Amino acid sequence: MATILKGAPVVAAMNEKTAALCARLKALGIFPTLAVVRVGEREDDLSYERGVMKRCEKVGVGVQRFVLSADAPEPELLEVIARINADATLHGCLLFRPLPRQMDDRTVRSALNPHKDVDGITDDSLAGVFTNGDIGYPPCTAQACMEILDYYGVELTGKRATVVGRSLVVGKPVAMMLDRKNATVTMCHSRTRNLARICKEADVLVVAMSKAGGIDGSCLREGQIVVDVGIHVNEEGKLCGDVNYDQAEPVVAAITPVPGGVGTVTTSVLVRHVAEAAARWHKIPLKEEETQ
Questions:
Q1: From the centroid of its chain, how far is CA 123?
Q2: Which of 1, 7, 66, 271 could form a cystine bridge with 264, CB 3.0-4.6 A?
Q3: What span, in angstroms and rounded, lies between the C-alpha atoms of 174 and 255?
Q4: Which domains are assigned to the chain?
Q5: Reduced to 3 DSSP states, what percent helix, strand and coil does the chain have, rounded to the nearest 5?
Q6: Digit-coded pLDDT (tens) for 70-90
Q7: pTM assigned to the model
Q8: 251: how many CB neighbours lie within 10 A of its CB?
Q9: Torsion angle of alpha carbons 171, 104, 45, 148, nearest 10°?
Q10: 221 close to 251: Cβ distance less than 8 angstroms
Q11: How far is CA 2 from the centre of its chain?
Q12: Which of 193, 199, 143 is nearest to 169 (CA)?
């Protein structure tokens, strides 16, 4: 029976640290604030927005919303982003995507100041991940995977880590972050041959393949740590992940649940990035002891 790597205790620990940083910044007259930019009224965007606002309120991060109609022209959105870039009181920006057809995603993403890119969507932020630089921030879901592994004390040095999925949102950045922790990383995708064998060889398996139950018992073995990034609704109307949980849980050493795993942590990562961005902007050390 596997240890369940629940997101809730990870979130609690992160929120405590973020709240402490926000309190310290506010004592210095700095009020960490997130700009939320939404085009249209997609229900999934609205749901995530509510969750973000609730989490921001909990730790002391302010929120300013910029809402455009679904048929707004691209220049209108670019003007909003230019205002956010120029406003020193706005420390981070969450831009909901995908954007409507009349807007070019790359053009819009490129317009955002990477220092305010707390969701890791700009090319500069991704370059920071790949070069271990301090430009922007990693994509929040990829960072959430690492936060879970760190919280539960999973040692990565010398371990074989396999990432299933090669998106810029999770697969590629999390592979680089695992590499930075001295894991030996293999990246798999839809055209990988012998996927089950390669997955079975991994000590740590991160699955972000966007296919419900795509990893089943044939891909797993005893002793593995499994991080399931996927979230889907199955035929019974229940949430499930990219990993067949019923087949994995009796076999592997530890696994994140769906729901209640990676997705739970992602919002806390975003909010922490806002507080860190505010500290960076004002050249305030992230840890209080560094000022003493």
A1: 16
A2: 7
A3: 17
A4: 28-117 (3.40.50.10860), 140-263 (3.40.50.720)
A5: 45, 15, 40
A6: 999 999 999 999 999 999 999
A7: 0.95
A8: 16
A9: 20
A10: yes
A11: 24
A12: 143
